[in-house]
Each structure stands twice: as structure tokens, then as C-alpha cells.
Amino acid sequence: MTEQVDKINRQLISRGYKLTPQREATLRVLLENEQDHLTAEDVYLLVKNTYPNIGLATVYRSLELLSELHIVEKVNFGDGGARFDLRNEDQPHMHHHLICTRCGKVEEIKDDWLLPMEHRIMREYGFTVTDHRLDFHGTCQACAVEEKDASRKAVS
Amino acid sequence: MTEQVDKINRQLISRGYKLTPQREATLRVLLENEQDHLTAEDVYLLVKNTYPNIGLATVYRSLELLSELHIVEKVNFGDGGARFDLRNEDQPHMHHHLICTRCGKVEEIKDDWLLPMEHRIMREYGFTVTDHRLDFHGTCQACAVEEKDASRKAVS
DNA sequence: TTCTATGCAAACCATTTGCAGGTCG
DNA sequence: CGACCTGCAAATGGTTTGCATAGAA
Questions:
Q1: What is the mean pLDDT of residues A110-114?
Q2: Bridge partner residues of B107 (DSSP)
Q3: Which residues of A touch B132 (CB under 8 A)?
Q4: Which of A41, A44, A108, B76 is found 20 to 30 A from A33 (Cα to Cα)?
Q5: What is the tens place of the pLDDT at every residue in B18-49?
Q6: Structure confidence at residue B89 as a pLDDT band (50, 70, 90)
Q7: Topology classification of domain A93-156
Q8: What transmembrane ranges does the database entry give (chains A, B) (predicted)?
Q9: Residue A108 and residue A41: Cα distance in Å, rounded?
Q10: How many angstroms is C1' of D3 away from CA of A155?
Q11: Residue A14 contacts by C-beta under 8 Å, 6 or more apart in sequence?
């Protein structure tokens, strides 16, 4: 993980920014919670564990900086606050999400299924795609089971 | 267009709601601007032309009601305010968007290319998809031309 | 010193809510 | 009357900004 921090540090420097302790703490929280989709508030509370004096505004500023450098991706599931996903550099595009509308859990799909579609968009619309986002809404497996249980109970 | 209003009126009634003048005015604005992706504020200002006394809160409440009935779709492009798209009933799923990051224009794609993907998600993840959203970010044809012009000028 | 970054509090802005009146059946 | 609906104003909640200070080059 520290290699990743080093690497990002170099990215920051090459763009004229510094990896301050606050920025590093924020970054480490993101690295340690790569699977989750944290809100700014979540990140703030977690960073406070290792850096209690940090201000919420600084977390926002750090997250925005990391977004600019395409190190994290700011995503919006429509439920109030924005969330921040670490970007995986060996994946040129954002990963996709399965969002359960019942329990709110967000699962990730790592495959990138959309390249053929992007070529088609270029051909048919003359639109050069640089990025995309794809979210599916529905019911996750666990919730499907629970719903079946609930309806069975309702009948009996 | 009035047939559409009638139809939606019936949908409202069947769910126990009324098509009040305010709701109708809001709905008509959406029908008249089907191609645009209006924010709540946009809708508010347009409705005010035909119904000057309407309050912003009422517009929000009407839009929320229409969202619940799946007559309009609330979408969030990540630029501050939510936008509202009329849903096309012969399309079971949301249409897709091409969002130009240079001029901000939003184009629509009417095709639904994702059904095979949804079947695969069911098989591989046990996730029941009820809806999806797919947005592509990039440069539209017009902007691509302008950028080429700009770079040519820079060279000469 | 000079420029950047930080913490705090205040400001902002889209959206929601409380409430007192209004409408319709 | 009773249930729903509206307009207004106030509250809310996530995010941004102003500003004085602190730190690094």
C-alpha cells in the first residue's frame, strides 16, 4: 500500500501539489476502504481516527484534489451525498455498480462490458467517449430471499 | 399532447391522486420540453409563465409525485441540481445519455443495449435488475470540430 | 518572504418540511 | 366536515468559501 502512496505522491508533485499529512491520511482511508463507497462524511470520521484535528473542509478539498487527478472518482447514487471510489489504474474506465434499492448495498462489477458500445457510439453519433458510468438498480440476492420469506409468512 | 395528459390523469386517479391545475401545468412543461433535461428550477420558471402564483415547493412536490408514478425520471449528472426526464412508456428502461464535458450538451440514445447484460448479472450475481442508468462522458461532434479548429489556429 | 495548505465558521444552494389557509367531494 | 393540496417561510444537509494562521520552499 505504501508503494501506492508513493506513486500518488509523485503524481501530486508532478502537478505542483504536495502530499501533506492531511492528504495522506485521507488517501490512506480511501486505500483501506477500497471496497466501500464512502461519503465525504464517512471519510472525515475515519480520518479523524488518525488525524483528530482535521477539518471537514480539508477532507472535501483533498477529495476534490484527488478527483481532479483521477485518483478517486466522485459518484452520485442519488441518495443525498456524493461518494468516492478509488480508481483502479489498470482499468481505464469506471467500474459498474449494482445498487440494491431495498437494503442500499452497493456491489461492484469489475468487468468492462461497454467497449463495443463505445465504438458504436463513435460511429453512429460522432461522440468521443472518454468515460462512462453504469449503475443497475434492483434487488440483491439476500434481499430477494428475505422478501420471499416475508411473503411466505404473510400467507401462512 | 392532451391525450397524454388525459392518460396520466387516469394514472393519477387510479392511485388516488388528483391532477390539480398546478400539477397539470408542471406536467405540460415537461411534455413541451421533452428533449431537454430540466432542473427543478427550470421547470419552476417555465411553469410560472402559465401559472404565476405557483410555489417552488409545489413544483418539487409535483415532480416527486410524477417520479413515484414513473412518469418522469429523476436523474443526476453530478452538476448540482437533479434533472427530470419524461419517461417513454414504450421503453421499459431509462434511455442513455451522451454528456459532452466541453459544452455540457446532453444527447439521448434511445436504444436499449443492456438486456443481455442484465441477464448475465442475474446469472452471475443473483441480482434482480429493475432499472439501470448509463451515461457516457466525452466530446460531442461539434466540440471535436471546434477543438480541431482551435489547435490548427494555435499552430499557424 | 512568498506561496500553498489548513481549520474554523459563515455562506450557499438545492431540496424538504411545518403550518395556516384553501379546495373539493 | 374531512382529506387532500397549496404557498410561504423556515429548516435542513451536503458542500463551498472567506479569512486569518501555520507551514514549507
A1: 78
A2: B98
A3: 134-137
A4: B76
A5: 999 999 999 999 999 988 889 999 999 999 99
A6: low
A7: Dna Ligase; domain 1 (3.30.1490)
A8: none
A9: 21
A10: 32
A11: none
